[in-house]
C-alpha cells in the first residue's frame, strides 16, 4: 500500500507540488475513512491519554507526508524511499526503549535490514532524472524518516485499544483542517486531470496501509514498523519498471540484503 502511494506521490508531486498532493491525499483519505466509520460504527476512544497519542500520531504522519512528498518531487523514488524506511528502525528502537521485548536474532536482523537500506540510499547515482536535487532529496527524506518513526510508534502504542477506523482518522482530519482548507482559502490548492487519479489512489492506499500497520502493531510495534517500512523495495522496483529509474549494483545489493533479512525476520518471529 505505502509503496503504491510513494509511486503515485512521486509523479503527482512533480505535476502540482508536494503540498497540494498531500492535501488531496488527505481529502480523499478522509472521505474513505468517514464511510468506513459510518458503516462499521466502532465505539470512539474516550481516554484523554489515548486521544493525545492519536493526535500526536496524526500530526507526525501529516508532517512526514509533506516532507516525503517534497523529497519525491526532487529525487528518485529508488533513492528517497529506502532512506524513509529507516522510520521502521527508529520506531522499533523507541518501542524497545519503552520496554517491548526483542530477541537477539530479531535485533541482529533489524540491524542488517537498516544497513541494507542505508547501502541502497548512499550508493552513487546512475542516470539522474530531470530536475533532480539529490542533496535536498536526501535531507528531506531523512527528516521524513525521523518524523514517520514517531508516528509509527504513536500509532502502534494505541493500536490494541482503539478501533482501526478511529486510528486512521486523525491524520486525515488534521490534514484537511490544517493543510487542505488553508491552501484552498489561499487559492493554492492545485489539481490537474493527470494528477487527479494519482492522488485519489494515493489517498486510498494511505488509509489501507495505515490500517494494516495498526493491526500488525497489535502483535508488536518493533517488528511491524520495520516490516511495514520495507515499502522501499516495492517502490524501487516499481520506479524501475514504470519510470525507467536505474539502480546501481550497490543499490541493488542493498535492496537484496533488505529482502533476505526481512524474509529471515519473518521466519524467526514465526
Q: Tell me, what's the shape? A: globular
Number of helical elements: 13
Based on helices, strands and strand pairing, what is the structural class? mainly alpha
Number-wise, the strands total: 0
What's the pLDDT, averaged over the residues? Answer: 86
For this structure, the quaternary state is single chain
Could you characterize what this model shows?
This protein is an all-alpha fold and 270 residues long. The protein has one domain (2-101, 132-233). The chain has 13 helices and no strands. The protein has helices spanning 2-16, 18-40, 48-74, 77-84, 86-97, 104-122, 134-158, 164-167, 169-185, 195-217, 221-228, 231-243, 249-269. α1 (2-16) crosses α3, α2 crosses α10 (195-217) and α5 (86-97) runs antiparallel to α11. The longest helix has 27 residues, at 48-74. The protein is globular, with a radius of gyration of 18 Å. The mean pLDDT is 86.
Amino acid at each position: 500500500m505505502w509503496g503504491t502511494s510513494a509511486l503515485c506521490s512521486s509523479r503527482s508531486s512533480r505535476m502540482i507540488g508536494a503540498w497540494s498532493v498531500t492535501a488531496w491525499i488527505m481529502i480523499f483519505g478522509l472521505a474513505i475513512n468517514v464511510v468506513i466509520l459510518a458503516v462499521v460504527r466502532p465505539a470512539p476512544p474516550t481516554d484523554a491519554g489515548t486521544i493525545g497519542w492519536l493526535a500526536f500520531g496524526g500530526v507526525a504522519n501529516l508532517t512526514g507526508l509533506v516532507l516525503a512528498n517534497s523529497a519525491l518531487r526532487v529525487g528518485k523514488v529508488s533513492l528517497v524511499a529506502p532512506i524513509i524506511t529507516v522510520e521502521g528502525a527508529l520506531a522499533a528502537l523507541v518501542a524497545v526503549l519503552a520496554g517491548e521485548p526483542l530477541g537477539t536474532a530479531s535485533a541482529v536482523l533489524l540491524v542488517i535490514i537498516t544497513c541494507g537500506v542505508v547501502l541502497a540510499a548512499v550508493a552513487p547515482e546512475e542516470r539522474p532524472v530531470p530536475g533532480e536535487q539529490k542533496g535536498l532529496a536526501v535531507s528531506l527524506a531523512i527528516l521524513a524518516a525521523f518524523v514517520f518513526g514517531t508516528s509509527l510508534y504513536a500509532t502502534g502504542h494505541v493500536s490494541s485499544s482503539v478501533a482501526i477506523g478511529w486510528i486512521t482518522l486523525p491524520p486525515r482530519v488534521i490534514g484537511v483542517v490544517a493543510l487542505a482548507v488553508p491552501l484552498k482559502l489561499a487559492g493554492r490548492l492545485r489539481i490537474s486531470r493527470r494528477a487527479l487519479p494519482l492522488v485519489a489512489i494515493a489517498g486510498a492506499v494511505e488509509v489501507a496501509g495505515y490500517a494494516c500497520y495498526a493491526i500488525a502493531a497489535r502483535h508488536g510495534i518493533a517488528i511491524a514498523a520495520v516490516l511495514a517500512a520495507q515499502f522501499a523495495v516495492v517502490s524501487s522496483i516499481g520506479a524501475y519498471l514504470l519510470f525507467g529509474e536505474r539502480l546501481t549494483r550497490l543499490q541493488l545489493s542493498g535492496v537484496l540484503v533488505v529482502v533476505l533479512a526481512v524474509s529471515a525476520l519473518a521466519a524467526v518471529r514465526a
